[in-house]
């Protein structure tokens, strides 16, 4: 079946007319979006007599990725170009921003051919018809990657993503400033009393205080986003008793970090940590390379407990996706596969520290022998996958505003959370999730 899959549009149309269902992927190389209802992956790639998928003549690809991943993307793109002769152009765009940009740029033919975003955006992307199923390489992606990763990048039973990495965040600690990682937030508060010197930009702990992705641990000690493992939009646990208690504790931490939430950014934290004036940083594996390259002797440990309870972090699966509107869907499929193999994931781990989704890559000695990785894997075991339903898009702004009100304005935790939940309910039951 694969040889029909790679023919040109005209030949493919004749094949469809003569043979009925001769085009495996449901996409003939046009920029027409695939229909998830009719183009579920057949996952029958790999037969001995099948011909290899080939890029369209003259194919050129645009790839979106974040600045932290630029070194890996440029390295893997070079290898891909050498093998297939397809030019790759890279544009820097944060993973969390890609679906919204694709909504406007995709239909206009301006979007990237291959995109990468966390799995919580998948429902929104599929509902908007933005991405093609992972059909041609579905069998390989499903068998080679962890079940958690495969499930996360599937929607309504259809595999869309090409898993590349699993991620969560944990606690970085500068061993020169604090030899052992604290086990509780109460320990951090005590440490800050003797360590902090705000006038010298010297702080015990920082995290992106205004970002709900990093603030979820304070909700997790009794609260949750959506019920039924993140699938029930009508069951919101962001303002229950446990969530309110966690938010109150969050607000109290301004005593050891007297800065406005908007002033605490990735770059600010990086500068202080590498400069030796920040002892603890809650961050993700994408930070490993930056800190390692600066020669910092650091460790990574699970998040400290909050109010005596384990702190769960948000976890996500990042995967490549093929733009439904791409003029070169075959070349895009090839790149998504090429950049997500075991070898590619190990290269990404080597360059940026991204944790592999591929089972063999994760079991590789280079990964297992790394003490830094062990800290993330321990945290991953107590993490919570972000909900992937489209209504997750209605959560971020209201809950971020609630955290901001508590941190910057001293607003009561319950009032702030009640207000956020009402906004989320209104969005879920009125105007659909932002598309």
Automatic annotation (TrEMBL):
It is found in: Cell membrane. Its main location: membrane. Residues 29-46 have a biased composition (Low complexity). Keywords: Cell membrane, Lipoprotein, Membrane, Signal, Sugar transport, Transport. Residues 1-17 form the signal peptide. Residues 26-54 are annotated as: Disordered. GO terms for molecular function: carbohydrate transmembrane transporter activity; maltose binding. One of its GO terms (biological process) is maltodextrin transmembrane transport. It holds the Pfam family SBP_bac_8. It is a lipid-anchor. It comes from the Bacteria. InterPro entries: Maltose/Cyclodextrin-bd, SBP. One of its GO terms (cellular component) is ATP-binding cassette (ABC) transporter complex, substrate-binding subunit-containing. Belongs to the bacterial solute-binding protein 1 family. PANTHER family: MALTOSE-BINDING PERIPLASMIC PROTEIN (PTHR30061), MALTOSE_MALTODEXTRIN-BINDING PERIPLASMIC PROTEIN (PTHR30061:SF50). This is Maltodextrin-binding protein. It comes from Paenibacillus paeoniae.
């Amino acid at each position: 079946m694969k040889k029909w899959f790679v023919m040109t549009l005209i030949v493919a149309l004749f094949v469809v007319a003569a043979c009925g269902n001769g085009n495996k992927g449901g996409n003939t190389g046009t920029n027409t979006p695939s229909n998830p209802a009719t183009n579920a992956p057949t996952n029958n790639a790999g037969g001995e007599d099948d011909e290899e998928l080939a890029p369209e003549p003259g194919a050129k690809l645009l790839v979106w990725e974040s600045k932290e991943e630029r070194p890996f993307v440029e390295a893997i793109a070079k290898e891909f170009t050498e093998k297939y002769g397809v030019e790759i152009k890279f544009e820097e765009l944060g993973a969390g921003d890609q679906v919204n940009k694709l909504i406007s740029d995709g239909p206009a033919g301006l979007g990237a051919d291959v995109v990468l975003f966390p799995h919580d955006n998948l429902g929104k992307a599929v509902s908007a018809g933005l991405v093609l199923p992972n059909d041609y390489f579905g069998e390989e992606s499903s068998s080679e990657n962890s079940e958690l990763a495969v499930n996360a990048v599937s929607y309504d039973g259809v595999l869309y993503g090409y898993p590349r990495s699993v991620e969560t965040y944990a606690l970085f600690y500068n061993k020169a400033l604090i030899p052992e990682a604290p086990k509780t937030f109460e320990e951090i508060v005590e440490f800050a009393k003797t360590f902090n010197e705000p006038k010298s930009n010297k702080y015990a702990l920082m995290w992106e205080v205004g970002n709900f992705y990093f603030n979820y641990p304070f909700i997790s000690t009794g609260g949750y986003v959506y019920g039924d493992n993140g699938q029930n939009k009508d069951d919101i646990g962001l303002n229950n008793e446990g969530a309110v208690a966690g938010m109150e504790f969050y607000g109290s931490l301004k005593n050891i970090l007297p800065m406005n939430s908007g002033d605490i950014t990735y770059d600010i934290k990086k500068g202080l940590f590498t400069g030796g004036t920040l002892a603890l940083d809650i961050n993700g594996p994408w930070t490993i390379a930056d800190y390692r390259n600066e020669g910092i002797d650091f460790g990574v440990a699970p998040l400290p407990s909050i109010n005596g309870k384990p702190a769960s972090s948000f976890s996500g699966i990042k995967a490549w996706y093929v733009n439904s509107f791409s003029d070169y869907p075959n070349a895009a499929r090839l790149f998504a596969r090429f950049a997500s193999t075991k070898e590619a994931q190990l290269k990404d781990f080597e360059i940026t520290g991204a944790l592999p989704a591929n089972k063999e890559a994760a079991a590789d000695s280079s990964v297992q022998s790394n003490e830094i990785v062990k800290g993330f894997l321990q945290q991953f075991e107590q993490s919570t996958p972000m909900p992937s339903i489209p209504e997750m898009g209605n959560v971020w702004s209201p809950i971020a505003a609630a955290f901001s009100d508590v941190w910057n304005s001293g607003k009561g935790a319950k009032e702030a959370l009640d207000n956020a939940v009402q906004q989320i309910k209104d969005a879920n039951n009125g105007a659909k999730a932002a598309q």
